[in-house]
Amino acid sequence: MGTAVINIFRRNPIIFVLMLLGLIFTWFSAGFIAPGNLLNIVRQASIAGFVALGMSFVILARGIDLSVGSTVALSSVLLTGLSSTLPPIVGIHVALLAGIAVGICNGVLVTKFRFQPIIVTLSTMAIVRGLAMAYSHSRPIFGTLPSVYFELSDGMIFGLPVPMVLFVGASLLAGLVLNYTRTGRQIYQVGGNEEAARLSGVNLDRIRIITYAVSGFLAAFAGLILAARMQSGEAVRTGVGWELDAIAAAAIGGMSLAGGAGTVLGTFCGAMIIAMMSNAFNLLGINPYWQRIIIGVVLALAVATYSSEHGKAALKRIMRLKPRTGNIALLKTSSDVR
Amino acid sequence: MTVASIDRPRERNVPKPVFIQARGITKSYRGVKALRGVDLDVHPGETLAVVGENGAGKSTLMKILSGAVEPSGGELRIDGEPVRLSTPQEARSRGISTIYQELMIAPALTVLENVFLSDLRRGRFGLLDWDGMRREAQRILARLGFPASVDTTAKELSVAELQLIEIAKSLIHRSRLIIMDEPTASLAKEEVDNLFRIVRELKSEGIAIIFITHHLHEIFEICDRAVVLRDGSYVGQAMITSLTEDKLVTMMLGHAISEVQQRSSSAVRENEVVLSIKDLRRSPDLQGINLRLRRGEILGIAGLMGAGRTELVRAIFGADRVDSGEMQIKGKVGMFASPRAALDAGVGLAPEDRKSEGLILSLPIGQNITLPSLGQYAGMLGLRLGAERRRAGELSRQLNVKMASLDQLVGNLSGGNQQKVVLAKLVGASADIYLLDEPTRGIDIGAKESIFDLIWQLTEKGASVIVISSAINELLRVCDTIACMHLGRIIRTFERADFDLNAIMLSIMGKTAGHTPNHNDSRLEAVRS
Ligand SMILES: Nc1ncnc2c1ncn2[C@@H]1O[C@H](COP(=O)(O)OP(=O)(O)OP(=O)(O)O)[C@@H](O)[C@H]1O
Ligand SMILES: [Mg+2]
């Protein structure tokens, strides 16, 4: 048991950074540690955290999903828009299904058509944002959600904010899936070495599509809570730039963008750190421009630290050659003839 | 200077000053002691063999000499002067170049760009001097017997040719020591001969070579002196002239190798054909393969590089699509749609290249071993980790994997031990048709015996095995049948009763049956020796 805990810390040195930052911010700003403020941070971190969690699945399988921010927006306008005529439960289902559908589209384009993930999701990012704007005529949708849905973002269970409880629950579930199910393990395997995974019987396409679907689903979920919190849906500004925060949370949490390495706990901490920093900077009255700059620097520092290990692994993977000499020998004779 | 020097003085009468002196080198990785106080001297112009079992610490010691890894303790002197080599650049600037077990070549770049990868030359105006570099690369590569143009992209080249690029790289750095870590593990016999020719030529110019191999006969062919490591410790050294293969093995293992085992009897069940293939084609590698595998049979596939051996087993396994052909496996007709389908039908493949196809280096040993058989541990509530771990432990012991724990990353294992993990994976998948592509590559002689044993045990339990090996003497030992492949065809098949080394050699070179051996054929001589 003791060694298990030590191993968790060893695999996730980011936990120490999280604690250290907490102490520093408390030192500089008395307001930081106030219960109300902490709850605020946690609520903030949780909503963005769902997106980061989904992104982690995709990154672990060596992909990337830039469409998440648009999916958040689509989900928020679908829920609020549909709720004007139908019970909100319908809107919730439609929004979540739409998120999954976006993910499956991404997955199918990446696997069956072999397009590059960054290009595919860049296109769906634009398309989905466009759909959300078309649906809402680019206008905010107010006052359609019954006020009980406010509880989804501001309510408390066990003395904790609902989004927090949901986020912790989702993270635990994600951790269990990744470590204790076959599909979860296969996600690491595909990210670690695609060809070895394939030759060991892993269905690469299935795994990839699943990761994008999870990402789409969780982004849509974040959109629901955001809509509940704002009591409105909006397509133009909602979720803009969230893909970057999600990638940053995963990277700060130690996830390797080369795939196959990283933990949910790391991403969890990464999301907390990002929310904590922007909150503390607000309290300290630091200019928003500076905030972005500092977050950028932190991200660069984090990546530089990890890349001493992961970066090398990625480089090796790129440099590695397949000595499939058979084909080559034949190729050469034919090109010599020409 | 461009002529290969034929004479090779085996004895060094004149004592030369020591080039490198390593004393008490230690290295530990989180408690794992890879090296425990190793001494090593390298003299100018000598060809030094460093030998030892898998995991003895050979590669680690080489990484320390080449600046890739920093030692935990000990002292390193070059020309008598204490040095610290903390980066490969430093080692290179002191005249030490290394050709690693895994070649470090950028596949998308051309030969020329690769040769000058770390040492681009500038000419006038600070621009790159491509003409000068091209001339120099051409000169050096011609001398090495490199067949292709310097503008070929690296990914089109064979392993042997890539090695020549690595050697060319070390020559432009004017190296005084070239370290070669298992350079012959994936070379064909003629390529080995070309490499040895180069080694002798370098030696005559006073360049020292450290040579690591598990093919002990190569040491007797090319080296002057051998240094033996065991479990990270220095065991001893000897001049090759005063050694025999048995003595060397005893030094390596700490005891003499047990009598070479022979198999008592064949386990082939004559009338039970488990796999038959008719006219299998995949352009351009497979040109109409016909093959039949019986229950309990060990079928060896012999052939030169480019004969299509790897492509054949990959096609059987469903890893690559085929153009046409018929396959019948255990009564069912048709090719496998995917490796998963093959595994489900009880067919397993140990691929040729363990790093890129066999293992997931970023995952622990335990998870790699259960990779193809993970479904066996899937329970109602997720994976049964206890059962998985127990089985992984059993398999790693059965294959004799030398490791600190199952949680160690497989990428940190020594090359030979990684190969054992590839085989452990396969045994765990409980197949009954095994396709083994070069299963003994990089494996020490002791472990090789246990792998042969394992193959025999499997067939006694009713499994069938197809083995690819470039070492024909291994095939002669383990197989019931040997099929000779040449340019995508099986041109002749030998049953154990009429195994004939000469006839097999001729067949793999495409000489038709009945052709009398031509003793002037230099290629034949090369392969036979
Ligand atoms: N990065 C690492 N982390 C942990 N252990 C390591 C690492 N690198 C090497 N080792 C361990 O050090 C020991 C020596 O490994 P090394 O690669 O030097 O063996 P080797 O003699 O080259 O074997 P082989 O013949 O199989 O190539 C092994 O037990 C290996 O597991
Ligand atoms: Mg080695």
Instruction: Kindly name the structural category of chain B.
Output: alpha/beta
- What value does the Rg of chain B take, in angstroms? 24 Å
Task: Name the chain pair whose interface involves the most residues.
Answer: A-B, 38 and 56 residues
Briefly note the structural class of the backbone of chain A: mainly alpha
User: Beta fraction of the residues of chain A?
Assistant: under 5%
- Gap from first CA to last CA of chain A: 67 Å
**Largest sheet properties of chain B:** 6 strands, mixed
Radius of gyration of chain A: 22 Å
Topology:
The complex is a heterodimer of chains A (338) and B (529).
Chain A: H1 2-11, H2 14-28, H3 35-60, H4 68-82, H5 88-111, H6 117-136, E1 141-142, H7 151-154, E2 156-157, E3 160-161, H8 162-180, H9 182-192, H10 194-199, H11 204-230, E4 232-233, H12 242-252, H13 264-283, H14 288-307, H15 310-319, H16 325-337
Antiparallel strand pairs in A: 1-4, 2-3
Chain B: E1 20-29, E2 32-42, E3 47-51, H1 58-65, E4 73-78, E5 81-82, H2 88-93, E6 96-99, H3 111-115, H4 130-143, H5 159-172, E7 177-181, H6 189-204, E8 208-212, H7 216-222, E9 225-230, E10 233-239, H8 245-253, E11 269-282, E12 286-295, E13 298-303, H9 309-317, E14 324-329, E15 332-333, H10 339-344, E16 347-350, H11 354-358, H12 365-369, E17 378-379, E18 382-383, H13 385-398, H14 415-428, E19 433-437, H15 445-460, E20 464-468, H16 472-478, E21 481-486, E22 489-495, H17 501-508, H18 522-528
Parallel strand pairs in B: 3-8, 3-9, 6-7, 7-8, 13-20, 13-21, 16-19, 19-20
Antiparallel strand pairs in B: 1-2, 1-4, 4-5, 9-10, 11-12, 11-14, 14-15, 17-18, 21-22
